[in-house]
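Team,

Forwarding the record for the chain on the shared tracking sheet. I've put the sequence and predicted structure together so nobody has to dig through attachments.
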Amino acid sequence: MSFKFVFLSPAGELAAAMSEAVPAMEIVQCESRAEALAALPTAQACFGTLDSELLAAAAELKWLAAPAAGPAKGYYFPELIASDVVVTNFRGIFNDHISAHIMAFVLALSRGMHRYFRDQFAGQWRSGGEASPSTYLPEATALIVGVGGIGAETARQCKNWGMTTVGIDPRVESPPPGVDELHRPDALNQLLPRADFVLVTVPQTPQTEGFFTSAQFEQMKTSAYFINIGRGVNVKLADLDQALREGQIAGAALDVFEQEPLPPEHPLWTAPNFLMTPHVAAAGPYLNERRRDLVVENCKRFARGEALVNVVDKENWF
């Protein structure tokens, strides 16, 4: 089947790969809104970000390829959610990179690196030797909130260190390899007291915004660590800062934040037992190739009238 595919943002190397895979496909690259409004009425597929006006112009649109795994809030607006347009995203391409970042945090916190890093910068030698505090991972439990691709890969890596893994997910039906137990989100508060590490990988959805607050930190053990690499708005930073300063939890590590960049005056910069990275957990090789392969595979499927991969639940944004 021939069809028209419109790029609402620069195509880069994608266009050539798509043309080679599906020669009958017409590709249009738009450099302005006017060009997009002119091209969309006869397009069956497009890549990029729509709004109400662009969607209304796209009378024949069947497939929208989102430019990210979790686009910014507002990408899934009411008219798009109500439409018959199928949306796909890039989830899955970051699983290995992000899970490695999570494990770097787990290992650092378990061995006290969050304290030693600050000592180094302060020129301070901490005494303690082999009696220094640490968390023995073969006796530790990781509560992984979200066991999709990233969470499942994180669970597999946790098992390599001998950890017990407990997963929470609203959609996964059976425990993925590496997950010892699987529960629904309503069990979160009952499971938090068991965890030595709470690892949050969930995307931003209507249900997860502001998901972690003081109420959840109060349920955690004072010896437990909190790690978030999902979306920053899922965790109330003021509540996390309070939990760290009051010793409600032993420490935390974040790669994502409610406000990005984190403002220089934010108290988290000086919070005790805290590690942070500036939204870099997805960094790693082969991402462009993985994006290309996903889009090309869906182009082939679309041309053959087959089901697409990485279809989004539009009401839940993921």
